UniProtKB/TrEMBL annotation:
Name of this chain's protein: Prolyl 3,4-dihydroxylase TPA1/OFD1 N-terminal domain-containing protein
Lineage top rank: taxon: Eukaryota
Cellular-component GO terms for this entry: cytoplasm
Lineage: Eukaryota, Fungi, Dikarya, Ascomycota, Pezizomycotina
Domain Prolyl 3,4-dihydroxylase TPA1/OFD1 N-terminal positions: 92-148
Entry's Gene Ontology BP terms: regulation of translational termination
Example GO molecular function: peptidyl-proline dioxygenase activity
The organism of origin for this protein: Lasiosphaeris hirsuta
Cited InterPro entries: TPA1/OFD1_N (IPR039558), uS12_prolyl_hydroxylase (IPR051842)
Stored Gene3D superfamilies: q2cbj1_9rhob like domain (2.60.120.620)
Length: 161
């Protein structure tokens, strides 16, 4: 698995976060009703020498390939029950949050991602400066229950906790 492959040993994680992401990726401001972030290019593009110097992103390239690889997809499929994941429609980017940026409560259901079967976030925080709960940013998952619209449509709403 990823952790056994050494992708997240302290040396590779530090290189990925500090050297590759902070020095070799470019970010653009992106905002909508759900988020306000600094977003990198789609990670498929980091192998494009016209946009990036791939040799400057070895750990990010390895991580991207591992997350899209058959072994990881089979593992995720087995623990989530979403069925086989082809890897042909994966979307990956690096997002950076600076003061004022945020990700609001949302359900990942929108017209652009209506075929999305799985979504996850991998946080690469600074091990030398552990994340403090007072800073916010905690991931909360909510159970949902089905509900019906007046015209018979079905949707899901968060259950009160």
């Amino acid at each position: 698995m990823l952790f056994q492959a050494g992708l997240f040993d302290s040396k590779n994680a530090e290189s990925l976060r500090c050297t590759e992401v902070n020095r070799s990726l470019t970010f653009k401001f992106d905002e909508n009703k759900v988020y306000r972030i600094q977003r990198s290019t789609h990670l498929a593009n980091i192998s494009n020498p016209d946009e990036y110097a791939p040799e400057l992103l070895p750990n990010l390239t390895q991580l991207r390939d591992a997350l899209n690889g058959p072994e990881f997809r089979a593992w995720v499929s087995s623990i989530t029950g979403v069925g086989p994941l082809s890897g042909t429609r994966s979307s990956m980017a690096v997002n950076m949050y600076v003061l004022g940026d945020h990700l609001l409560t949302h359900d990942d259901c929108n017209p652009k991602s209506r075929n999305r079967r799985l979504s996850f976030i991998l946080y690469l925080t600074d091990p030398g400066e552990p994340w403090l709960p007072d800073w916010g940013g905690g991931l909360r998952l909510y159970a949902t229950k089905p509900a019906s619209t007046a015209d018979g449509g079905v949707f899901r709403i968060a259950e009160p906790s």
